[in-house]
Amino acid sequence: GRGNAEQHQQHQQEKDVFIRMLKQAGVSFPSSSSSSTSSSSNNNKKGAPQVADPSVLRRSLERSLKLEPAIFPDFEEAMVGYLREHCYSSLIPTTRPSASSSSSSSSSSTSSSSSSSTSSLSIMFNNDSLVRLLLGVESIQKDLIKVLLQELLAYNDTDFSSDTHEAQIPRLLLQQLRWLDHVVDSEDLSNTLPEVLGAVSSPIKRELIACLPAILVDDNTHAPVLQALIELFKEDNQFTGAILDCISNLNLDPVMLETVRSEVIDMLQASPAESLPKMVEFLLQTTTTAASHNKQEDVREVVRALRLHLDFDFGLSSHATIISSSSSSQASSSSSGSGSSSQRKAGEGLVLDALKSSIRFNKEVMQAFLSEIESVESSVKHKILDVWTLVLLHTMPQCKKQVE
User: Fold this and answer.
1) What is the tens place of the pLDDT at every residue in 275-287?
2) Which of 44, 160, 214, 249 registers the highest number of CB atoms within 10 A of its CB?
């Protein structure tokens, strides 16, 4: 009725504020993008807007919003509506009108094939999408970042294996936030990210974790995100590799890094075999690369922890499997055990690979293992890990004599 008509008119006026200001700043939209008649079925199917000069766009919007502060709420609401209605086209690189396309539009039409060839040759791409350009406008950046992160939730049920625009949108949304030249409110961003991390689906969560080092450009605001990552690390081992890779790429101060290492060490015994190689690699890598006054002692502490918590039965698990499956009456019941045993052996082998790599390329790790093994007072106190470490060391010419 009348109320719906008034709401439609108000929505159109708000949308016109956004469209009008961007057009004044040199943005040209595909014909249906500025029309309120575009249906949801056409959503995201139109091409990206044309932007004559990205720097002019940013300056023009900053100036207009400063001169007309009263229209800011309407502009922002209209902006959010436009981005949701044209999400995909707002996330892909904008095009730039060229001289040849301008001249061809003013001249008389030629044959359709010639026109098509000319227009395809005249297309020029900007590096940034419309959303990325809008993130450069300081007055709207903070709210726009929240909109982009909240928009991720709309794609929790998306089939990411499909080759559709919709399946690409979560990754495109996150790409907009990578390596921003300037983040207006880094603290607010760091407080918002854990909320989003806890609400998105597993595939999006994995993408978000991978992007965090490029999103968190302010090293002083890592604490909330780091705490959320540690909690997720404890709760769900499917993200172990992604989380530890992410933390490795964050620029953490020594105290925060030591806190993370302690959490990882505490989880060694409770973690599944397939998670252990990445955990071992993280512990040794961050200890040897971190800026520390007591690096040698830090490495020895990690080595002690590995010897204490990596209680592997190398070479024994396979025998246990053979024995358990020797009886035909127990063959079927032992099949699941055999599978888990094979998985464990594979994990143990990868742990040895991680140790071998660290020992080979880090003298501190090599010396720490040798020192710890030599300090064992009684042979009965040696770990199976000690034996395998000595085998690894014996393959290295510089350690062979000392091992013997």
Assistant:
1) 999 999 999 999 8
2) 44
